[in-house]
## 1
Amino acid sequence: MSKSISKSTLTQLITLSILIVLVVVLSILAPEFLTYNNMMNVLRQVTFVIITGSAATMLMITGHMDLSVGSLLALSGVVFAVCAMNDIPLFLAGLLGVGVGFAFGVLNGILVTKLKVTHVIATLGSMYVARGLSYIVTDGKSINAGLPRGFDSIGRKMIGTIPIAVIIAVLVLLIFFFLESKTVFGKYAFAIGGNKNAATLSGIKSNRLVLSIYTLVGTMAGLSGVIMASRLGAGDPNVGNGFEFDCIVAIVLGGTSVAGGSGSVIGMAIGALIVGFLSNGLNLLGVGTFYQTVFKGVILVGAVLLDSLIKKKLK
Amino acid sequence: MEQPILSIRNISKEYPGVKALDDVSFDIPANVVHCIVGENGAGKSTLIKILTGAIEKTRGSMLLNGQEYYPKSIKEAMRAGISVLYQELNVVDELTVEENLTLGAEDTRFGVIRHSGKTQRVYEVLHEIDPSIQLKEKVEKLSMAKKQIVEIAKAVAANASILIMDEPTAALSEEEVRKLFTIIHKLREQEVTVIYISHRLDEIMEIGDYVTVLRDGRTIATKQASGIQGQEELIQLMLGKIVIQTYVPSVIDTDQKVLEVEHLTNDKLHDISFEALKGEIVGFYGLVGAGKTEVARALFGADPCEGTIRIDGKEVHVRDPRDAIRQGITMVPEERRTQGLFLELSIKDNIPVMNYKKISRWNVYNKRKQREMAVQYIKDLRIATNSEEKNVSLLSGGNQQKVVLAKCLNADAKVLLLDEPSRGVDVGAKDEIFHIIRELAAKGSACIVFSSELPEILALCDKIILLYEGKIRAVIQNNAEKQPDSEKIMQISTGGLDKYE
């Protein structure tokens, strides 16, 4: 028998089967589950995780994490709203919002790669700073008055029957899938996460690469924040609490190793959909959010456990 | 004849489509050093894993002291008195010697560690083996050899009656090997049976009482070491054909200096100057700690250094390995698993890492070209694998080393630094690696070999540079008619002699 299926493909197949089982079960239990409107509703909800998670998956493949993405989502949205309110053209306001994420991404990257702060600590620090800044900018209140017309277009408008946000998420996903699987950049990310020593001795500038991926993560968190604010029609400093963990859940469900070296962006998208469908389905079934949180924890550990059990069996 | 301590009877291990072990049978008498030799893939590791309960046999039986022995876990094997000293040592660097010795067997009261007669015995065992090791010292500060001694003491104190040593000398200098052998003799006196696995046949001839040769998962022979007619006979048994290593002078273009190094200095090296001519294989020899790896790493930009490096007469500056690769210097690192390979990645993903240019355009790579490249190297270097998609972690040591070589060859370097190129590699693969290095030199690359195995240096290198304490002590021209005096070389390398005349 030749080893035709690689480990990460196997994990993806397992997560994909979990997703399919979940969809089948939910559509039997809740008749309104498999409707177009409901599907779009779920897709809209998972766009944020998919946009940010695409970059964060690459980051985790290198063996690093970013805990600041939830706060960056809030800060970028707030900056977008404040700029828009102050008559800065919408496009530029959006760009500034994304720019805040970019700047924090660079900061995180420098802290981790140049100043050698442990990645969890560095991004935990940024998490507090960014959250604090979004409270300062808004004085702790949600900004929803005086926003220009069109502020909500990127978050709510559709092209044909598909929300713009969903299209953006799919594009981002495809770009990162391309980066991961077709480019030298992606190969290097796997190499750094798999064996940093060997990567350095192979002439890979790991610091430079990790720095650029942190920047991408920050930027994608910024983009998510702008879309979120537009969708809410407000710059709310409280959004995105726990968002960093939603991303990590999706990434890990998708078969990315927390230690780095293996993983996949597509797997992350499947993971995000599992979480999205699950909470949506539970909503439809009338299960309260308190219980949903419990479910999320169970499914995370359960899926990882199932994955390792199946792999052990096949060995 | 006395009852053997361990009888292996018709052991087979089958994986789907592969017979790793095929009807292996032999006896291990008590209180001897019993060596197991064989090429990589001959079944040595599989046999050890079965002995220690890491995997289950498919068929056959084992008798330990005349009793049916069928371990289901490593712990069970240890309880039965079989311990293993793995190639990758199982010591915790951050803990002290004392803590390591009792790790897992601490004497506790209410969870608090206390000292008692039981722990005292472990310390005594260590003291007996090597009194120079301090109990309070952190293990990370110990040399490889001393770490090994700590592990041996731990196993002996746990009442091991059989101690399996898997390539114990792979990371040791000749001096340390001598010391290990003294310890092995002591163990035998203490009625510990040692199962000794090594690629170094000279060691086996020296330390072994019995030798079992495995080939392709089968027992070829079990012999008393005293009855073996030299290493050639062992090699013949292992390979089924004779391989004799002799020095073949390279064709050297004396007018063309590919590499010139002047006054290379850093905290470990003092004023290293040498040159490599076109087609020449230069060898650095020295004991562990003499500075071989440091020279390689400095030239490769992996460690900071001062000095001048010229390639083809042009001065180059290497700040880091990436610079080095761009300037035409590449390195096969000392430790292939931790420094050379990406174990979770496939062969085809490992090979192009140093140089993607040939298979990519605008940093987007071409899957077809990548596969073709891997297939070509698998064919050229005779890497034994059924697919280029195979994870390198699943390859044998020799084949892993060939993947590292392929990775470096792909960088198209003018200067190839090879740090311990055949460490932990079987005789057949070693031969092939030598052949690859000679071919590279013949094509005009400068090959610099760093090795702590003198036979390797003598067989391969045209010029031999002896290092001692970070300094060059002597430069010797190899000679096909008259082999350099290895005793003198050893004396210089241990600091006993200043010059080679």
Note: The radius of gyration of chain A is 20 Å.
## 2
Amino acid sequence: MSKSIAKGIIISTASLLLFEIVGLRVTLAQQTESKPPVVEGDWVRTDTNGSGSFGNLLSTYKQASLTPEGQAMMAAGGGRGGRGGGRGGAGGPNGKGAAGDPQPQVAGQPYVTNAQTCRFGGAPQLGLEYDSEGFHLVMNKKDAVFMQERGAVRHVYLDGRTLPTAATRPPSGSGYSVGHFEGDTLVIDTTDMTAGGVTAGGYRTPETHVIQRYIPSADRQHLVLKMTWIDPKIYREPHEYEFTFDRMEPGSYALETFCDATDPLWGQSVVPPPQQ
Amino acid sequence: MKFRLAARAAAFTIIAMTMSSAVTLMAQGRGGMPPAAPVDPHDLSGFWELSAEWKYVPPANLLPSITKATLQKVHDADLISERWCRPIGMPALMDNGRPLGFLQGDYELLITTEANTAPRHLYFRPAHVSAEIFDPTSIGDSIAHWDGDTLVVDTIGFHAKNGRMEIPGGGFRTEKSHLVEQFKILKNGMLSVTSTWTDPTVFRTPHTYEYRYTRYPDPNYEPHAAIACDPWDEDRAAFVEKSFSPALKAAAEAALVKPGTMVVKTPASPAKK
């Protein structure tokens, strides 16, 4: 073998070795980057048996054990806090022959009853608790965004930042949330919420914390959300309950819902369905 | 001689490995020059803002059937939507005066903004939701895929009335509209979004315009909740209706259904046997 060929073989081999080494390092670097566990996606709530009457749904929840101070707060300003916007406003006249419809009102037919449908009490914000609507979660390493289908979103910061004090940031319906993973469980700590009621007889103020643990099943098709409200001024012990969710089928999509003051369906009376 | 060749090859290899390690270490911030901020062209996450000089919007080529009267009717409908605080939807949310928040996850790219609108879901899927089950929305059904360094987004399924219908440059969207967007981070770090609308009932030829967004300078920016829109705020209503003609104002107020009005007649209950 001539010297030049041998030289070429050695240099070529060295070059190939170089590319392999660089490629291997890139691959290893990519493999060591952590990908977020799969709580991301679209979820629908499943523990809604009895939700036709909220009393039945909540009858399975352990009621909050309140301190005397917490009981006083509830008495003064109870009611579910944090959800901005939606229906509301004073009911209007609902008598026979009301303006807008010359015919006498017929029993069993729906009529517009609200005078100021969609009157908002503040900026639309996504609440921390869920009703029968599903939720959609999109996330990367720094941020997780929760949304339902009424437009508002809620950010949970995953970059290690600390929670602000109420003095540095005005409270909001969604509060301020930071999160991290413990294995596959997404753990979120939220504070700085506006005052108001909480499920199953609880209450919250800007100083209250709520810990949410989103726990996926092994097959990632089911989710348990454990809620723990902590505030020594309000609760004798942490106030806990949970919701359950199923992952929506592939191909599901977020619906769009908004309160339209000009749509009579948003301001109508509830009419029982025909009985067979 | 053989030893020299082997030594050169070994030296070459060692130098290459050292350089590779140095690049990695510098990227980790340890030693050497400070690392340049890496830009991943396949990750659009972040906050982006649009200023007036970074819009290229040529006039649309409209069908002859789209008369001035037709355009005025759509414009008036948009004003009434604004009066009653309906969500703005597409395409208005892409230029709503507030930063856009892009969050790229595994299943979708989510676009949020601090305005009265639904967020956009750009699903990383090969096909749209079946028209038989999809409820049209003000933002439509968007699917996305990467074509090199360009994210191509295809949107259909727009609602006939929800959202602001007017399109920059002229024309308006309908249930038949089809929007193709191309999102690309340019060499200067700006995000280019090219939008092409087609609609057989509105445009004679596809209508294309481009916006270029600047990445929001504060890496720790925290978005605010949208400013509340209260349709019953009398000061707001008076201000919004300031530019309304008397006829438009009357139409806006007539859109409200007053208490006592029957909603929809439901079938009577069957007679009991």
Note: The two ends of chain B are 111 Å apart (CA to CA).
